[in-house]
Amino acid sequence: MMMTSATVRAHYAPVNGLRMYYEEAGRGRPLLLLHGGGSTAQTTFGALMPALSRSHHVIAPEQQAHGHTGDIERALSFEQIAGDMDALLEHLGLAQADVIGFSAGGVAATQLALRHPLRVRRLVLCSSFYARAGLPPTLWEGMAHATPANMPDVLREALFAAAPRREEVPRMFARQVGLMQSFRDIDESALRSIRAPALVMAGDADVMPVEHVASLARLLPHAELAVLPGSAHGTYLGALEGAKAGSHLPALTLAMLEEFLTRAD
Length: 265
Fold this sequence. Notes:
Shape: globular
Number of domains: 1
Largest sheet: 8 strands, mixed
Strand content: 15-25%
CATH superfamily: Alpha/Beta hydrolase fold, catalytic domain
Strand order of the largest sheet: 1-2-4-3-5-6-7-8
Order of helices and strands: EEEHHEHEHEHHHHEHEH
Low-confidence stretches: none
């Protein structure tokens, strides 16, 4: 569900040895969007980015080995991605930003808030997780043999379309799988140390159980919880892998995001 059209500016930035691709739109308070695993800025946030850019300076990077951003011989971890986002904001001359992370991007957003707390003004975690037990065992088991053929069609097509070189897609995908396999539980005491106001969102038919998402919201000291009805993974964001034609959920999500992000500190 596309809200409106918007002028999206595409750029590359030198970030920790990467030539990182990022999209930029709008003006106002900086808003960093962190896409999901195996995704791009547009596949995750393309439906909401135009509307968000009406009142925010939207910055939507593509992480190492994702989308237009190629891979380099360097460790790939959620902690490393958080470091890359800190470096990108530094490159852009932005001391602080609101941050929205979806799925695996939510883990990276959590690590950014933990490792670089002054960078994060407000934190939105969408369909995210903090422990391996928060995702179904079948998902972890399936990663051992995952290939691009196992991806949702829309994500696989976007992956090939955006990759710097199509022949690199299998290697990039393997790196994305390795990123997930490297995930280790985030200590609950660390989550309790996050001071940024947070909004935790999920669908009632999401990949992770509502109970896990509610537990995440309870652990964050200044968090609110929103569970969207009739929503699978990403449906409420309009993310391509979960989008439903004619759904009003992205508009509802947009209203909640705007209310949360524009609230006085």
